[in-house]
Amino acid sequence: MKNFITFMFVLFLGFTSSAQNETINVADFGIKPGKDVTLELYQLIDSLEGKKNITLFFPKGQYEFYPENAFEVYRAVTNHDNSLKKIAFPIFNFDGFTLDGNGSTFMFHGKIVPITVEGSRNTTLKNFTIDWEKSFVNELTVTENNKEEKSFTVDVANEKFGFEVKNNQILFNHYDWQDEIGQNMAFDPATRSPIWQTKNYYLKPQSHKTAKIVKIDYKTAKFIDYTKSLPPVGTVFATYGNSPGANRFAPGIHLSNSKDNVLNNITVLAAGGMALIAERCENISLDTFIVTSRDDRTISTRADATHFLGCKGTIKLENCLLEHMLDDGINVHGAYVKVEKYLGNSTFLCETSHVQQWGFIFGEKGDELMLMSRETILPIFKTKIKEVKVLNERRMLITVAEVPAKMPEGKLSLENLTWYPDVYMNKNIIRENRARGALITTKGKVIIENNYFSSQMHGILIEGDNNKWYESGGVEDVVIRNNTFNTIGYGNGESYPLLAAPLFTEDQRIGDDKFHRNIDFSNNIIKSFNGHLVDAFSVKGLKVTGNIIELTNDYPTGSTLPAIHLDFCEDVIIEKNQFKNFNFPIKIEVKENVNSIKIKRNKGVK
Amino acid sequence: MKNFITFMFVLFLGFTSSAQNETINVADFGIKPGKDVTLELYQLIDSLEGKKNITLFFPKGQYEFYPENAFEVYRAVTNHDNSLKKIAFPIFNFDGFTLDGNGSTFMFHGKIVPITVEGSRNTTLKNFTIDWEKSFVNELTVTENNKEEKSFTVDVANEKFGFEVKNNQILFNHYDWQDEIGQNMAFDPATRSPIWQTKNYYLKPQSHKTAKIVKIDYKTAKFIDYTKSLPPVGTVFATYGNSPGANRFAPGIHLSNSKDNVLNNITVLAAGGMALIAERCENISLDTFIVTSRDDRTISTRADATHFLGCKGTIKLENCLLEHMLDDGINVHGAYVKVEKYLGNSTFLCETSHVQQWGFIFGEKGDELMLMSRETILPIFKTKIKEVKVLNERRMLITVAEVPAKMPEGKLSLENLTWYPDVYMNKNIIRENRARGALITTKGKVIIENNYFSSQMHGILIEGDNNKWYESGGVEDVVIRNNTFNTIGYGNGESYPLLAAPLFTEDQRIGDDKFHRNIDFSNNIIKSFNGHLVDAFSVKGLKVTGNIIELTNDYPTGSTLPAIHLDFCEDVIIEKNQFKNFNFPIKIEVKENVNSIKIKRNKGVK
User: Fold this and answer.
1) What is the interface size between A and B, counted as CB pairs within 8 Å?
2) Can you tell me whether residue A182 is helix, strand or coil?
3) Is residue A40 within 8 angstroms of chain B, CB to CB?
4) CB of B257 within 8 A of CB of B282?
5) What is the mean pLDDT of residues A319-335?
6) CA A98 → CA A118, A122, A123, B186, distances in Å?
7) Which of A18, B96, B408, B581 has its CB 3.0 to 4.6 Å from that of A96, i.e. a possible disulfide?
8) Are B515 and B486 in contact (CB under 8 A)?
């Protein structure tokens, strides 16, 4: 922890060095509220090339941004659709660039990325709200339902754009495209969260013959035989299209290849992807970063609130509110790449597995690598990158300093050991979203304290997969303390406040060693309808102590699953946890393959 | 003409300067017939970076190229779909690079561009054939038809890929995608050309209720109520999909920003776009460049055989055979960009109009520009580019040296006067293709002699539009002599061996001056079923002399249109043309707005 604090100190010292700021009032360059300022802003930013310690100051107001005259460049944006991106604030290769919105709203129209920070140092973004005239998510509110007809009527939140029904399909009009229904999810207006057992309300024709969509008027449509269960009046459907390039087009903010990034007092009300995606950045600090929905909407962003791939230094989140997004609150991880073939001469032909990671920078010269088994997901041999030759977005040649005397048989992958960050999360609220609260898989030091989590799936997921997304890796030092977990897993009651387990495919298997290490889950308060606490697999060094778990009645109570479930773990302490008020059995299930376990002084366990 | 010959001499002198070639036998680098050599070839080319006067020599054989390990980069390719392009031969920034296939076949699989020459000088490509395992064009041969059922049965040329029928749609399997029917055209096996009145056989459901496609077996399908007229047995349908990124993905050869390019003895049997597309190149010489279909196919390329946008120096085609492609034989033109808005400070906000020109380089610093009226398409003011700032693929800011004292009212466009080539075409055969033989709109000197044309639409089209494609511009010196035009316009009998006319939109109008100048169409032999010779609009200086037009009976004879039609022309000579054997009236129609016209000593005219 001492190193951690020292590091943070050095970090903040670095941030104050940009003291001789030149401040530019954008109004002096024709950038004024109430009109499209995209071209003027680009011309201004372009004219600042090479300048240091610049602050762009926006007099408070609402500024409009349209795609027509926006700067554009082809971008691979991890976890988004790679494509030509129009960018309103292209902050490329700056040192000491500050964007101060002074409480302004930046209002976007159509397919445009608000802010991209690329190849920069000491960037500060602060005091503004990002919103879209028309959200990328289409919302439908149920106003009537009819059991006999198996139908329900919806208000389409179309704002001025409208919709049409064609060939028995509903098409939502957007700035210059239409979305079909695509993926979708039902939300409960009472909780502003995904509705309990939301999958029963998935919008999909239930029968080829009777399923039908009828346009009633400009804002009303009727769905017949479209859901397994009839949605209650008030239900809000969130749908987003599958159109290529529009499915996850636009993050709110993209940080890439940049060092020392500070984001303060920013609100993101909508985005066509994540609110914030960061890749290959060193040091990112978020304070009062808010992702929420606008008053007239239920949903905020199309995907995660925040996501960090292959970063290093420290990622710090404090005082953030992340809610109403259609995916996780925060996800911090490294990456594996598949070894397609060993070509000899210390060179591996490697492949990035998931299409939405294609084009990301896996590693560069000098990065430490671990050669891994793709069967056990365990490390085999440590080496260093000598050269990376990118062939295409999917494949690359990686030449390393040293290889094992005999190349191991079986499927292999590579893990980048250099680009793992420390994580510090304090006083954040993550709630009312689809999916998980936090996914944390980094080899760095992790402290998660004083936060509030309430998520549809797991509260905190410590996973690592060598499978689909190839998100690495095994953790080494995670402390989760003094947090509140409220009604975790209100999707279907099967999730846990903490799940720590690598994700195995059918042809992957347990090896000789554990995947995760040193996870301390202590002194948290859990308000729970099912008593679930921790599910752990392949963890060495797991401490679950001093947690208080109290029954709530917000969702159907009870569970068929154990409160604590341990599989292939080692050095485990389960101590002084109190289960309060549960009127059903609270079980701890320990598989025979668990070694060195202490379970003592827990209350309320059967 | 003297300048022209001098220039050619200088050009060829330049070509011989790469005399101290180093020749590399690719076999020494593991590049051998019968296997995927994409990665090995890329590694070899990559290792040659910075070297001059290199010859890559391929021992004769068939080499395979697949997309998986190919070099990839985002490319705007004019007249094609812009996208990430995998490229087998990325010849980037070389000086004196020679690719000598020694008679080899380069066989491509899937979405991959065979050859891209970018930013290079003195490049020679020779002695190879480009082919694809599976053509981008889907061919269907009619084996039976049934009038009562309004049906016909087809053999699907599926090679090993096959097809499926799903939701009453036929889907042709390709390397890693499926094509729906999309655009299509029927060919006549007797002529190997588009069938007479091909639009009657357009594949489109004729009735929502009865139209049907049935899969009979792995290579047979039946179409019911799908064409206006029932296609004769033997008819070959060519169809190509609409899938984004696959519609015009891959040209055979892309020349871009390169000087002194020689292409000799190359055969292109298939391509997912044009066989050759060149943009912003200086000097391109083609000798024995052959575009044709493979013996087991009817169609060669998905689009034009050759196309040149915004080139300069000389474009020379000799001894070429261009046939069976689904678009024009050759198209040489410059480009206009629309002026969206004059921003003051000598800066225009400009827009590239057609989506398949987005991203092309319209002009660079130092290029001469003409400010044009977009209403009359006539020149207004000549100036020079001081700076171009590209905003995005569609829009740019162009700052010029001088603007008119008073900016003219009305819609404007800009024409690049610097990037216009001379054209020399000699002894080429262009035939049996959809669309036109040659489109030539360049301000350079043009000589077209001793060629054979036989096209579905116009033989030679001298157009220029400020409308859809924004292909400039008015010609100044064109000589078309001693060519043979055979059964021109076998699409529907409405086309001409020569049409010279700008294309006007409804809101464009004749101005004070003519658009084209100095076109000499002399001593050509025309074998014609309708007697059509020349249609000209807005041409000053038109000479049509010594042409012999003979009747053929290959298609239905006769015409409702005049043999010669003149509208808004000036300084016209129609002299000593002989119409032979026509058994229907041959008319010359001259509008009242034509000035200074001599019509004399023509034979066979009524």
Assistant:
1) 48
2) strand
3) no
4) no
5) 97
6) 14, 8, 6, 62
7) A18
8) no
What residues form DSSP beta bridges with B89?
Answer: B115
Q: Say yes or no to pLDDT of B1 above 50.
A: no
Q: Are strands A438-441 and A412-416 parallel, antiparallel or unpaired?
A: unpaired
Contact (Cβ atoms closer than 8 angstroms) between residue B241 and residue B179: yes
User: What rounded mean pLDDT belongs to chain B?
Assistant: 94
Q: Which residues from chain A sit within 8 angstroms of residue B72, using beta carbons?
A: 391-393
On whether the CB atoms of residues B126 and B266 are closer than 8 A, the answer is yes
Q: In degrees, to the nearest 5, what angle opens at C-alpha B231 toward C-alphas B230 and B234?
A: 150
Take residue A87 and report the two structure tokens written for it.
């960018």
Query: At A12, is the pLDDT very low, low, confident or very high (cuts 50, 70, 90)?
Result: very low
User: 3-state DSSP call for residue B124?
Assistant: strand
> Residue A75: which region, alpha, beta or left (left: phi > 0; alpha: psi -120 to 50)?
beta
Q: Which CATH number fits domain B2-133+253-323: 1.20.1250, 3.30.70, 2.160.20, 2.80.10?
A: 2.160.20
Mean pLDDT of A99-105: 98
Amino acid occupying residue B140: L
Give the fold, CATH level 3, of A2-134+246-327.
Answer: Pectate Lyase C-like (2.160.20)
User: What are the angstrom distances between the C-alpha of B568 and each of B467, B510, B539, B571?
Assistant: 20, 8, 7, 11
A46, A71, A392: residue with CB nearest B70:
A392
Interval B66-103: pLDDT, tens: 999 999 999 999 999 999 999 999 999 999 999 999 99
So what's the pLDDT on residue A8? 44
Q: What mean pLDDT is predicted for residues B288-302?
A: 97
> CB–CB of A392 and B46 under 8 A?
no
pTM of the model: 0.93
What per-residue string of b and e applies to A408-431 under the rule 16 or more CB within 10 Å gives b?
Answer: eeeebbbbbbbbbbbbbbbebbbb
Residue whose C-alpha is closest to residue B549's, from B572, B533, B562: B533
H-run or E-run covering A236: strand A236-240
Lowest pLDDT segment from A550-559, B37-46, B156-165: B156-165
Q: Residue B279: what pLDDT?
A: 98
For residue B252 the two structure tokens come to 């055979």
Distance CA B177, CA A377 (A): 33
Under the banding of pLDDT at 50, 70 and 90, the label for residue B245 is low
Quick check: B213 and B239 in contact, CB under 8 A? Answer: no
- Torsion on CA atoms A407, A413, A417, A423, rounded to nearest 10: -160
User: A439: helix, coil or strand?
Assistant: strand
Q: How far is the CA of B548 from the CAs of B428, B437, B551, B572, B573, in angstroms?
A: 20, 19, 10, 18, 16
Give the mean model confidence (pLDDT) for residues A549-573. Answer: 97
A411 CB within 8 Å of a chain B CB: no
pLDDT digits (tens, 9 = 90+) for B37-55: 999 999 999 999 999 999 9
Q: What does R_g of chain A's alpha carbons equal in angstroms? A: 25
The span from the CA of A215 to the CA of A223, in Å, is 9
Range 345-374 of A in CB contact (< 8 A) with B:
349
Domain ranges of chain A: 2-134+246-327, 138-240, 333-416, 422-600
- The distance of A382 to chain B (nearest Cα, Å) reads 26
Query: What is the total residue count of chain B?
Result: 606
Q: In B58-94, which ranges are E strands?
A: 62-65, 71-75, 83-92
Q: Which CATH class, in words, describes the domain spanning A333-416?
A: mainly beta
Cβ <8 Å between B349 and A392: no
pLDDT digits (tens, 9 = 90+) for B346-385: 999 999 988 889 999 999 999 999 999 999 999 999 999 9
What is the DSSP code string of B176-209?
S-EE--BEEEEEETTTTEEPTTGGGG----S-TT
Neighbours of B15 (CB within 10 A): 16
Q: Which residues contact A136 (CB under 8 A, 6 or more apart)?
A: A174, A240, A246, A249, A250, A270, A271, A272, A302
